[in-house]
């Protein structure tokens, strides 16, 4: 508009400079209107715990998009996914400058799970979502290009953290809803699309929170296994050793020829172990959730895990780690069984990294920029052939290994690792008469009842000690207090130590195993027969066993 035309329109007393001030004023007002700050909340998983992440979105004048707060490449790529999902719904990407900050900035944000909270924040800052209840929820989810929500990892620790920090609820993809609904006192909304999130906050549609009956799940699915201890014919001494191991949470090694039933026995060990407590179930589920091992239909893990990695596994896959640390097999076996079949075939370095977790029951993963702890309280059950051909000490078949090969084969397992295994038991092939016998051995539930009674005795014994719940965890001072021997037992153990040349750690293991055997017999004192049985569970320490 020219000054002459403007002068014709305005009064004669009107200042010619006024239109320019007016234009400046309009720009200032528009900038104030379009400068809008919105907050949403998400979570970052560190170890098996979650940390709340505040996502601040500011829409102001400009045309650029900024994402700050230490995001990784997957988080930076979210702009394209969010923009596509928004346009699919018929909305437009804000035609102004969008600045997103993810705080705290010193925690690295990884993965695509931040797509949904970022999209919700951008839509709210642009006025398309009501921000009334936005800060009351923790929001997580990955977006497809059409706005569909994809499942994410670590939902259970995220939900637990949200409840601790007083959030009203969590908004997640529908496939993650059952897992989060395990946490009481939290509204869990499992949604299918970004459009559902918009409708939820705008109040245009009503959604019911997901609810599950935790007691029904926990009590209904616990101790349901496809296999049973009674499936095993014969092998009574090995079954007894497994019962002792389960009662005291002892590590066990089975040595026997191929086809003697070692793997079959190991796979049935979880069926005789005490059922998971609610606390153990939550902790186990958290680990598997972080690792992405929870399926759509599982709300809570109610059975003890059984992990059986192949002998070609790497160090990192076993103990955990990687560029972005993840739990390994020993953590996935937490509160359950880690079965290593053909133990000597594992790389020496793989076996040696287990020495510290076996003692401390925790694994620490240290990287240049982060350190995290994963629980690793598992029962180690291992099996091996006695020699390369597999028939050393076989009652019927002759061993074809040359002299010294048996010992060389056993030397693949280091002495310190063997010392950390409480029970060494020899497995002998089952005769035809035993296989054809129609007698029904003890079922898993019967064996489990005896083990539960023994565990209850141990729970009362160690009630005053935090973190100690089984005989295998006894310290030296506890051992002196609870493993007193009578004269006959002490003499028997001394003789065994002298003849077999046992180490101090082996001495401790024998006492702990004897204590467990006494608990199974519901005996207050360790008797000579308990010591004798415990000594017999150290087969590899027997002189001349390897020829």
Please specify the SSE layout and strand pairing.
Layout: H1 3-9, H2 18-34, E1 36-46, E2 49-60, E3 65-68, H3 73-76, H4 78-88, E4 97-103, H5 115-125, E5 137-139, E6 142-143, E7 149-150, H6 155-164, E8 169-173, H7 177-180, E9 187-191, H8 194-202, H9 214-221, H10 236-248, E10 252-255, H11 262-267, H12 278-290, E11 306-307, H13 315-319, E12 320-321, E13 326-327, H14 329-332, E14 337-340, H15 348-352, H16 355-360, E15 362-366, E16 371-375, E17 379-384, H17 405-410, H18 415-419, E18 423-426, H19 432-436, H20 444-461, H21 476-482, H22 487-500, H23 504-520, H24 528-536
Parallel strand pairs: 3-4, 5-8, 8-9, 10-17, 10-18, 11-14, 14-17
Antiparallel strand pairs: 1-2, 2-4, 6-7, 12-13, 15-16
Helix pairs in contact: 4-5, 10-20, 10-23, 22-24, 23-24
- According to DSSP, the number of beta strands is 18
The major sheet is characterized as: 5 strands, parallel
Structural class: alpha/beta
| Main CATH class of the domain at 35-202 | Alpha Beta
CATH architecture of the domain at 35-202: 2-Layer Sandwich
Radius of gyration: 32 Å
Strand fraction equals 15-25%
CATH topology tier name of the domain at 35-202: Ribosomal Protein S5, domain 2
Strand order of the largest sheet: 11-14-17-10-18
The rounded distance between the terminal residues' Cα atoms is: 107 Å
């Amino acid at each position: 508009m020219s000054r002459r035309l403007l002068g014709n329109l305005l009064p004669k007393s009107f200042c010619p400079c006024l239109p320019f001030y007016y234009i400046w004023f309009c720009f200032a007002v528009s900038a104030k209107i379009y400068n809008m700050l919105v907050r949403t909340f998400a979570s970052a998983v560190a170890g098996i715990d979650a940390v709340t992440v505040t996502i601040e979105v500011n829409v102001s004048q400009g045309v650029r998009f900024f994402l700050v707060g230490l995001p990784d490449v997957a988080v930076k790529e979210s702009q394209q996914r969010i923009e596509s999902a928004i346009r699919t719904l018929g909305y437009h990407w804000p035609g102004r400058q969008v600045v997103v900050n993810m705080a705290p900035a010193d925690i690295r944000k990884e993965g695509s799970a931040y797509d949904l909270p970022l999209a919700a924040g951008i839509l709210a800052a642009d006025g398309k979502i009501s921000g009334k209840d936005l800060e009351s929820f923790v929001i997580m989810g990955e977006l497809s290009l059409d706005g569909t929500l994809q499942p994410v990892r670590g939902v259970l620790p995220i939900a637990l953290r949200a409840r601790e920090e007083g959030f009203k609820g969590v908004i997640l993809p529908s496939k993650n809803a059952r897992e989060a609904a395990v946490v009481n006192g939290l509204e869990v909304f499992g949604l299918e699309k970004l459009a559902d999130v918009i409708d939820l906050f705008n109040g245009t549609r009503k959604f019911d929170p997901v609810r599950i009956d935790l007691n029904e799940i926990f009590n209904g699915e616990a101790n349901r296994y496809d296999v049973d201890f009674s499936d095993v014919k014969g092998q009574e001494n090995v079954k007894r050793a497994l019962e002792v191991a389960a009662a005291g949470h002892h590590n066990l090694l089975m040595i026997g020829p191929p086809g003697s039933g070692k793997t079959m026995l190991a796979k049935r060990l979880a069926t005789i172990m005490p059922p998971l407590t609610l606390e153990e179930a939550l902790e186990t589920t958290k680990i598997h959730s972080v690792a992405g091992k929870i399926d759509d239909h599982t709300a809570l893990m109610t059975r003890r895990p059984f992990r059986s990695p192949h002998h070609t596994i790497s160090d990192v896959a076993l103990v955990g780690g990687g560029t972005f640390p993840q739990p390994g097999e020993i953590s996935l076996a937490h509160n359950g069984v880690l079965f290593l079949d053909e133990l000597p075939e594992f790389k020496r370095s793989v076996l040696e990294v287990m020495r510290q977790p076996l003692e401390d029951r925790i694994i620490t993963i240290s990287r240049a920029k982060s350190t995290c702890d994963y629980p690793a309280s598992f029962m180690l059950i291992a099996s091996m052939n006695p020699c390369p051909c597999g028939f050393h000490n076989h009652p019927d078949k002759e061993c074809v290994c040359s002299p010294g090969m048996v010992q060389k084969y056993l030397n693949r397992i280091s002495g310190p690792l063997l010392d950390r295994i409480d029970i060494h038991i020899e497995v002998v092939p089952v005769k035809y008469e035993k296989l054809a016998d129609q007698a029904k051995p003890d079922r898993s539930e019967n064996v489990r009842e005896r083990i539960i009674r023994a565990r209850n005795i141990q729970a009362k014994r160690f009630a005053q000690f935090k973190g100690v719940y089984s005989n295998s965890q006894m310290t030296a001072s506890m051992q002196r207090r609870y493993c007193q021997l009578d004269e006959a037992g002490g003499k028997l153990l001394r003789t065994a130590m002298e003849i077999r040349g046992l180490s101090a750690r082996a001495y401790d293991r024998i006492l702990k195993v004897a204590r467990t055997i006494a608990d199974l017999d519901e005996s207050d004192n360790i008797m000579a027969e308990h010591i004798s049985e415990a000594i017999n569970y150290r087969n590899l320490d027997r002189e001349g066993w390897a020829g």
